[in-house]
Design goal:
The chain is of the alpha/beta class and 286 residues long. It has one domain: TIM Barrel (Alpha-Beta Barrel). The protein is 45% helix and 15% strand. It has an 8-stranded parallel beta barrel with strand order 1-2-3-4-5-6-7-8, surrounded by 7 helices. The radius of gyration is 18 Å and the shape is globular. It starts with 8 loop residues before the first helix and ends with a helix. The model has no long low-confidence stretch (mean pLDDT 95). Keywords: Decarboxylase, Lyase, Pyrimidine biosynthesis. Belongs to the OMP decarboxylase family. Type 2 subfamily. This is Orotidine 5'-phosphate decarboxylase.
Length: 286
């Protein structure tokens, strides 16, 4: 769909979450999971896994999120499977968040933006995860192209890995934490957007009281909050309430292992996705 005809990502995601529930299924074809499905750790297995997941959940969840690294490790043939997976999600009418966590400066960031956000690029889904830790302003090429093409960004803000603390909780000279600064700058890009802006944040569902501890105002972001760690990784309704509080309606819960471990049977994958949607609705929209 050309940019002139495409609604902003935030509006499309808000509608999908309202209609299908606030759940994103991560597509993470790591070697152990391929083996558990009886597939080879090769491009053939990668393709079978990815397209089976899209077939099972496409049209039934708000979004899917292929993790680019698991495709890139197979070289150019693996990247071709990622392109095919993105196209399959598009054909299924399901939003696709490409989890590539790109971040760089100047023309290099511009090139990443062209690869993942430009109309006509086979790697362009509906949104891209990006890293702001070369300075939020370094994301400008991606933010501008995403706005032009009706796509979205999910900016890393408060992640669940233990190493994230030393960067995300660090304070600037004026005493503001880096996480709070990232959220505030995303809010500027989303100003005036309804029902949601298209610049979201990645906020781990298992980070406990980190939002309060860093003074991060998630409600004010006015954008979607992608929350990895739901389900098999430990976050349930209580954890989601603790982390997100009054911003819960902005949350897109992300589950990978909790759904993917039900495979390779398509019916079992669908049942697991439906159960996860129900849990996400209850926790975030109840």
């Amino acid at each position: 769909m050309p940019e002139a005809a495409r609604a902003p990502f935030g509006a499309r995601l808000a509608a999908a979450m309202d209609d299908l529930g606030p759940l994103c299924v991560g597509i993470d074809p790591h070697s152990a999971l391929l083996a558990a499905w009886g597939l080879g750790d090769d491009v053939v297995g990668l393709r079978e896994f990815s397209l089976r997941v899209v077939d099972a959940v496409g049209g039934r969840v708000a979004a899917v999120k292929p993790q680019a690294a698991f495709y890139e490790r197979h070289g150019s043939a693996g990247v071709a499977v990622l392109e095919e997976t993105i196209a399959a999600a598009r054909a299924a009418g399901t939003l696709c968040i490409v989890d590539a966590k790109r971040g760089d400066i100047g023309s290099t960031m511009g090139a990443y933006a062209e690869a993942f956000l430009r109309d006509g690029s086979p790697l362009a889904g509906d949104a891209l995860t990006v890293s702001p830790y070369l300075g939020f302003g370094s994301l400008t090429p991606a933010a501008e192209l995403a706005a032009q093409t009706g796509r979205g960004l999910f900016v890393l803000c408060l992640t669940s890995n233990k190493e994230g603390f030393e960067v995300q909780h660090a304070r600037t000279a004026d005493g503001v934490t880096l996480a709070a600064s990232v959220a505030a700058q995303a809010a500027v890009l989303n100003a005036g957007a309804t029902p949601l802006g298209s610049v979201g944040l990645v906020v781990g569902a298992t980070i406990g009281d980190a939002v309060a501890a860093t003074g991060t105002d998630l409600e004010a972001v006015n954008g979607p909050l992608l929350a990895p760690g739901v389900g098999a990784q430990g976050a349930g309704a209580t954890e989601l309430a603790t982390v997100f509080g009054n911003a819960r309606r902005q949350v897109l819960a992300s589950s990978s292992r909790g759904v993917l471990s039900a495979g390779p049977d398509t019916a079992a994958l669908r049942a697991a996705a439906e159960a996860a949607v129900g849990e996400a609705r209850a926790a975030l929209r109840g």
